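Quick sanity check, methylmalonate-semialdehyde dehydrogenase (CoA acylating):
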Amino acid sequence: MSVREIPMIIDGQAVPSQSSEWRDVINPATQQVVARVPFCTLEEVDRAVASAHQAFATWRKVPLAKRMRIMLKLQALIREHTPELAALITEEHGKTLPDAEGEVGRGLEVVEHACSITSLQLGELAENAANEVDVYTLNQPLGVGAGITAFNFPIMLPCFMFPLAIATGNTFVLKPSEQDPSSTLRLVELALEAGVPAGVLNVVHGGPDVANHLCEHPDIKAMSFIGSTHVGTQLYRRASESGKRAQAMMGAKNHCVVMPDANRSQAINNLLGSAFGAAGQRCMANSVVVLVGQAREWLEDIVEGARNMKVGPGTDREADLGPLVSPAAKDRVEGLIAKGEQEGARLLVDGRGCQVEGYPDGNFVGPTLFAGVTADMSIYREEVFGPVLCVVEVDTLDEAIAFVNANPNGNGTSIFTNSGWVARRFESDIDVGQVGINVPIPVPVAYFSFTGSRASKLGDLGPNGKQAISFWTQTKTVTARWFEPENVSSGINSTISLG
């Protein structure tokens, strides 16, 4: 099998990097090298930014309707190439093909939303706000934007960034994860095929040096990041100190509260899927289940369900979860499992030592379940980012709400109940950005904004929806009065009154 060499995209062309530093991209089910990705030089990053900066002068003036038609073409191409994109995700990330296809679909939602740009970017008008004075606003693009994405959603996360950024008239430089870049690069190629002009959308690769350079580059006006809290906090600070608009969607510790009146089988199936799907490598994974009252009696069913889940390569459509993305990720997760035992949690299902026939070198960790978990334990405090579910037991809804709100993160939470009163109380009192009611992973549809909170988010505007339009544009307010040609001035007005 030939090994792909991942190029940059600069000025509409695939450009090979001249960097001396390259990393192998590994199939996590086999450890086979499938691609090589460069860590671009800073001079190459500057070339990409310069291309975007130059393209902005003309792209910002392209009519909204033409930008809309490009987005319409892109969504059609993504639909057509969904199997190809999903296969690339599975090959480099490891998630199952059905899960990868679902990811492409969620990214497609954002592109479909961007197709409405002709109505999304409208300003406001007040006619005759004063005597023959009209006041109106223009929502204009910022300039060059930058996006830095994590490995866990190599299609969806870039779609959270560049479609709306370029649809609003900005140009863009994207740095995807070096762990699984091929599907992201193919997505950008489809955007160019859809008619995105040269220089409007560029791709560079690399590690911290490239990310820091993008955050500090004077020609970049806005930075969007999705990834870990540690990295996101540093990049947000760098970008902000460099005078950029910035948003950072970061780590999480999501909770699923199960009330005793919930539909038992539905609740259990949903919480298991949300905890262990994609091998737990989701920032919205429900890694903690809070069993309330008599729902504690369901623990044996949860354990049985976890034991019966199938682990396999992502190409096996019957598998519930695939491998972790790398040997390092596997070692970290297994280390945290060991730590959970050491700190006193009851290990009811142990996914370590998971063997998949025909794939002896895969980074497999099976579903793992701990009971008796307390808030001071490492498996609760840290984002495991693996197939590990912590079970917490409380007596009342009040205790459950207090427990969730005491966690510093606020990305997502869900509740399973058949009581409208309980659901409304939960959504009102819970201090978390995204809430699911009988929905295990409450990532909103793309025409609503992604609204994580507290330690899970920096910046007041999130991706997608109306907030993304605000993030990628700046408001210009115009106050205008037009005099009749023969109008005679009534004299000097030295006040601030419009009159």
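Posting the structure with no commentary besides this: Residues 333 and 386 are 6 Å apart (CA to CA).
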